[in-house]
Amino acid sequence: MIVKIKKLNENAIIPFKKHSTEDACYDLVPVSYKYNPKYDRFEYKLGFATQFSSDWEAEIRPRSTNTKKEAYIPNSPATIDSGYTGEWLIMFKLRTPFEQLFPTGDKELNLIEMENEMAPYKIDGTPIAQVKFNRVEHTDWIEVDELSETERSADGGLIREGK
């Protein structure tokens, strides 16, 4: 597989495997971040855009070290489709919402504190997430009137009366 990558920021780091061929995923390092109060999330830019075959998708996942953070990737795993050629972004939400962290006080000052003090990751070369490429199976959907009976059937394998 070939992934074309275009740096949009001179500090962008091309995704890499820390342990060479042993790792399934490539580490992702941000070049900048900003807190977005409208969506109560931190938006990390990776500083690059990509293009790859439509037979593949890029799946963004948290790193195992993310469990030590008070933040999570809300749409995890996230998918980057082959047709998307914009800058890669990773969103993080704090486990405690803004309103609970700052119930009173100067909202503008709190926003500055949120962005500077509460960010789950700083821009210091530390990977914040990882990407794994998965093959995409192109599917034809056929509408039918009936489906075949199976052992599990529509009840999902729940215990049936008389069994």
Task: Give a brief rundown of this model.
With 163 residues, the protein is mostly beta strands. The protein contains two helices and nine strands.
Q: In angstroms, what separates the terminal alpha carbons?
A: 50 Å
Number of domains: 1
What class would the helix/strand composition place it in? Answer: mainly beta
Oligomeric form: single chain
Largest sheet: 5 strands, antiparallel
CATH topology: Deoxyuridine 5'-Triphosphate Nucleotidohydrolase, Chain A
Secondary-structure blueprint:
Blueprint: E1 3-7, E2 26-28, E3 32-36, E4 41-52, E5 56-62, E6 71-72, E7 78-81, E8 87-94, H1 98-101, H2 107-117, E9 129-135
Antiparallel strand pairs: 1-4, 2-9, 3-4, 4-8, 5-7, 5-9, 6-8
List keywords for this structure.
33% strand, 2 helices, mainly beta, Deoxyuridine 5'-Triphosphate Nucleotidohydrolase, Chain A, 4-stranded antiparallel β-sheet, 9 strands, 5-stranded antiparallel β-sheet, 163 residues
